[in-house]
């Protein structure tokens, strides 16, 4: 009964999210031998100002690189 | 000093959330013998496209069943 | 389909954990009107050196107060 | 830069965990078009007394079914 | 390679969030001796109706105190 | 009332953890203007076989590099 939380930088389409849910569920089934209906996945959209890497947000990093 | 994260499919009213916070805090007090003021609860609204069960999102499942 | 993570300072007995799972599930059922079998709860034991409040760990706080 | 937390009932071998990390990373690469080195995964072993479904722990459920 | 999730009551400005990411990353570097580029931080804005303390939400607490 | 979860690869001493709790709390106080006693931090030790980067665990990566 795996439970997955997946944090993503915001901006993914519903189609990408659907593919992610499907592919990751299949990956759990193959690796762990669990039934697909036992796999629960929560996606979490993270805004660029809320995702920090190396001491700055992705928002600031992208503005600097623009 | 229990800390709870509760992920819910979006759409709950403030009244339901208030009841949930109150009832779950009481449950912790009864089961653990802690003081209510030490219990912290974070509610997380999950959009239907962000909640995956059995390899598809709740959004797709509901559209298919509509 | 609520999913709950509950972080607790280590040391709770299996009986207390069982009571917590039972009471918190009932609380979700009452407040949200969901079926009990849709409620999933993960308990997380936190060691006293891993729980920080007010800038120090519970381990150090307890040693100071002993 | 997806970050995944995966909660599993304890008892998986290192080989199963390695397969899970590899398969889930590939799934993220295919669904999101990200580079594998940006994917970070945290596995969390949950003891059977710490995983509650339908108001009781997996520990109690298994004992009842034994 | 520390990964931090920081839950905050909503309402912080981008400048406060940027300062938080910068200061917390520096704190990890000093305390753990890691390189800043290995530190990843996710900020999570929690609405006042979604943050419960002592059995009620911060929304209700603030209305009562207003 | 910030709540922080910090995932670390296992092996940190209690002294490093204490320094981390102290430094990160101070960082929150400086960046957000909150009182130290409102800051709660949970440290989570992640075993090397449970931390995946780029499709493999840190356990396997370290064995390969040894």
Automatic annotation (TrEMBL), chains A, B, C, D, E, F:
InterPro entries: 4-OT, 4-OT-like_dom, Tautomerase/MIF_sf. Its EC number is 5.3.2.-. The active site is at 2 (proton acceptor). Keywords: Isomerase. Pfam families: Tautomerase. Residues 2-59 form the 4-oxalocrotonate tautomerase-like domain. GO terms for molecular function: isomerase activity. Transmembrane segments: none annotated. Belongs to the 4-oxalocrotonate tautomerase family. This is Tautomerase. It comes from Oceanimonas baumannii.
